[in-house]
Amino acid sequence: MIDISKLSDKEVDEKIWEIKEELKEDLFIPVHHYQRDEIVQFADYTGDSLELSRVSAGTGAKFIVFCGVYFMAEIARTLASDDKYVFIPNRSAGCPLADFAFGEDVEYVWEILQDIHPGGYIPITYANSLADVKAFCGRNEGLVCTSSNVQKIFKWILDREKRVFFMPDKNLGMNTASDLGMENDYCIVDRYNQDDLNIKERRIVIWNGFCIVHKVFTLDHVDFWRKKDKEIKIIVHPECDPEVLKASDYSGSTSRIKTMIEQAPENSKWVIGTEYNLVNRLRMNNEDKFIEPLSKSVCVNMSKNTRRDLLAALTSIQDRDYSRQVVLAQDVTRDARKAIEKMLEIS
Ligand code: SF4
Asked: Cα–Cα–Cα angle for 65, 50, 136, nearest 5°?
């Protein structure tokens, strides 16, 4: 057994390449855009959480080492067949946004909503949520959404004369309501706040959670760049506060931001409001453009996965020690998968 703490960074990297070479197509390493560069270099695929999970499930690899945060590895576990093993390099890499909504709290509010409009709501959870919240949606004819398809899914529900119960990101919910011209038709709830909100009248009920990484961006940051250079275009993620979104030129999912920057004309100037590791990588890969972060905001949880954690996960696979794998209860997997599959059907 190797003592990873005694290896230099270079030796750790060499060892990872060696194990990748040894396991060949039995191993697949999906890496989220927000991961550190020291992890990205080993990626078999980089992308958004759901895209990565779908690609992983479609490979023949027996071992999936998902480099992202825990809810992403849970999605990969949900979609992968039972003969695959899913690992995450650092199991403490959680997501504070997902942790705003636990299954039991969501069930509690759901009961209250059922009393107000029995059978009147369809629950939707953002992909950035815990597996038991996805399973709750699956059990209640609900579904999952991403920041790319959230608007379409809200519309799909509203077109059926149903009301939306959306979790857990308040900003994504409010920004979507606003895009649909329903700024005055939502309320924000959580386990401890459902009174005096006029819930009965609102067609959209939004959970009170937020992403701390995107919450950091303010109007002052937007003003700073506007004053600095009038040619700069500002693009932000829809997990940002609504006033920041309104003051920006564009908004979009991580994939949309990446595509827009890559396709932008030479010498164009961009300021981006999303996780810093992605912004920095876009800057390095698009040297013909001016690219700056709206402000430097790093997801510390995404950054928890280090090259040493990755090597530890890979050596445990080599040693046939699967105790670090991500495991979900069978009923959670079944119901969460139902919610994801319903999203795929619609979008
Ligand atoms: S950037 Fe926000 S939503 Fe994404 S993992 Fe970090 S805390 Fe969670």
From this structure: 105
- Structure token digits, residue 177: 């309501």
**CATH 3.40.50.10800 correct for 4-93+302-328:** yes
Centre of ligand 1 to C-alpha 267, Å, is 30
The CATH homologous superfamily to which domain 217-293 belongs is NadA-like (3.40.50.10800)
For 226-248, how does the pLDDT look when each residue is reduced to its tens digit (9 = 90+)? 999 999 999 999 999 999 999 99
> Cβ < 6 Å from ligand 1: which residues?
34, 69, 95-97, 128, 211-213, 275, 299, 301-302
**Whole-angstrom distance, CA of residue 237 vs CA of residue 261:** 13
Q: Are 4 and 12 in contact (CB under 8 A)?
A: yes
Separation of 97 CA from ligand 1 center, angstroms?
6
* C-alpha 211 – ligand 1 centre gap (Å): 6
Residues, the chain, total?
A: 347
Q: Give the whole-angstrom CA distance, residue 106 versus residue 19.
A: 42
pLDDT in tens, 35-87: 999 999 999 999 988 889 889 989 999 999 999 999 999 999 999 999 999 99
